[in-house]
Amino acid sequence: MNGHVTESRRICVIGSANVDLTFRTPRLPLPGETLAGRSLHQGMGGKGANQAVAAARLGANVAFVARVGNDAFGTQALLGYQVEGINTSFIQKDAECPTGTAAILVDDQAENCIIVVAGANAGLTADDIKAASLVIEQADLVLCQLETPVDTAIEAFRIARAAGALTVLTPAPVALVTDELLALCDVCVPNITEIAALVNYSVENHDDAVRAAALLRERGVKRVVLTMGGKGVMVMDDAGATHIPAMKVEAVDTTGAGDAFTAALAVSLADGFDLRAAARRASIVAAISVTRIGTQTAFPSLREVNNWTNE
């Protein structure tokens, strides 16, 4: 993110790999309602894959541990990751389940709703993580989400902690988060909906954000980076709480913006930036991504980020 890439900047991502079917509609439908869509776009997604691709675009040395189906979507996904320079040695092809699929509806206000069918993602096991232990141990930072079984994230963080790697968690879907997982988490990156569920405290304003982040730290997380959309980011660690305003851009599609943010945060942390500087840089990457339609196709390269910040 600062314009130089080092071999030490190794990131291992454990998580989901999906095909995304994105439908553009004037507005999101009501229950039982049929709307005429404006367009359909097929792309690759899944929180794990999104974060792996976004980190690779920013110059990190990325390994991805995942499962795809033994189908056309799985083959397409693997080829796409390889084009991005991602190490796919630990992506398994599932003989029984199809590649995970997400149906994404995006309206004219850039709001979205998403339905995800896990498919092969549900078959990623702790044994798969153990088989990938070497690449996890070699990483400077290990990044997990929860669109795969929670035991995989726990096992990955155990291996990472033992090897001295930094652990970063996107707690989504939030229902799978456990105290055991949080205790293994160096940095947790929830949004306001997720943190409300994690600590049973809704976030409506700055003071609420500070309180919620403090409550999450009480559950065992060392550092919290709370994303609040257009309201910016709240960072909390032992030094206290800091609010980072959102970048002012005209959003056209917010799908994947959280994954772009978390990946950029991870790359910056692995590159030696402190938490607040990393969050500021991540905000720039997320801001660029929402000005473009699509998920992985919207993620910027390191050169684009540097050009954008120098304008």
Mind explaining what this structure looks like?
It is a single chain. The strands form 2 sheets. The chain has a 9-stranded mixed sheet, with helices on both faces. A 4-stranded mixed sheet has the order 3-2-6-7. Helices cover 36% and strands 23% of the residues. The protein has helices at 47-57, 72-83, 126-131, 133-137, 150-163, 179-183, 192-199, 206-218, 257-270, 275-290, 302-310, and strands at 10-14, 18-24, 39-45, 61-69, 91-94, 100-106, 112-117, 141-144, 166-169, 187-188, 223-227, 233-237, 240-244. By secondary structure, the protein is α/β, with parallel strands linked by helices. The radius of gyration is 18 Å and the shape is globular. Helix 6 (179-183) links the parallel strand 9 and strand 10 (187-188). It has a single domain, classed as Ribokinase (UDP-N-acetylmuramoyl-L-alanine:D-glutamate ligase), CATH 3.40.1190. It is built from 11 helices and 13 strands. Helix 1 crosses helix 9, helix 7 crosses helix 8 (206-218) and helix 9 (257-270) packs antiparallel against helix 10. The longest helix has 16 residues, at 275-290. The protein starts with 9 loop residues before the first strand and ends with a helix.
